[in-house]
Structures are given as structure tokens and as C-alpha cells.
Amino acid sequence: MPRAGFVRLPSSVQTILIDISEHADSSISQVVARTGFPQSLVSEAVARLRDRGALITAVDPTDRRRTLVRMSADIRTRMRRAPADSVEPVIAAALGIDDPEELARVISTLQALADRLSAAAQQPTHGGVDPGAGKDK
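-> C-alpha cells emitted (137 positions)
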């Protein structure tokens, strides 16, 4: 769920920050591969977030040409302390749902979907789906 202050970031930066939070010590090229954003966008976002204290960067000790990035301890603490914004009013408005029981079912279904997608993303093969399948090589 979005947290206070987080929603003010552009969605591309939010995506990059989420990716880095889930994959500590990633290189910029790894973040680019996972998010699909151009390298220039990822590099700029990482630099800005680093300058604001949200991220820490370091030279990869095994390949000094690469920069590794991770979330700072401070930002993790701030994220845990920030109150969670409820998505329920936004979903209710977007779908035109007035019935609290129907809204609860939709939220439950979305949470189940999020849980499954999160679990699938943790698998090395992304849930058994080859992300390159069907693409010309």
C-alpha cells in the first residue's frame, strides 16, 4: 500500500524504489532489466533518491564499473512508521461501488492477486513464465 509521502513521487520513481527495496544491492542495469525503464531514467532517479538520503550507492567490489544500490536504513524506518493510506475509497470511487460488502470482496480479491503476483515474482522463472517467450531473438 502507498505510504505518506510516497504517492507524491512519479509512478516511474515509485516503481524503481519498490524494485530496489525488493532487490537490495542491485546494479543499475539489473533495475533497468526488471523495470523496463531506460537506463537514463533509472540512473537519474537513483541519483536524486540518493541525494535525498533514500538510497545508498556503492561501487561493486567485483566489477568496479558497476554501481550497486540499496535503500537506506533511514528510509526503511520512515516507511515503517508512516501511516498506510487506505486504497478502499479510491477503489470504491473508481469502480462505482457503494456497497461495503461488495467493496470488501473486491479488496480481498485484489489482495489475493497481489499476494500471488508477489510470490510469482520471487520465483527465478517468474512463476514458470519465460519473459522472453514469443519475442524474436
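Residues 86-128 form one domain.
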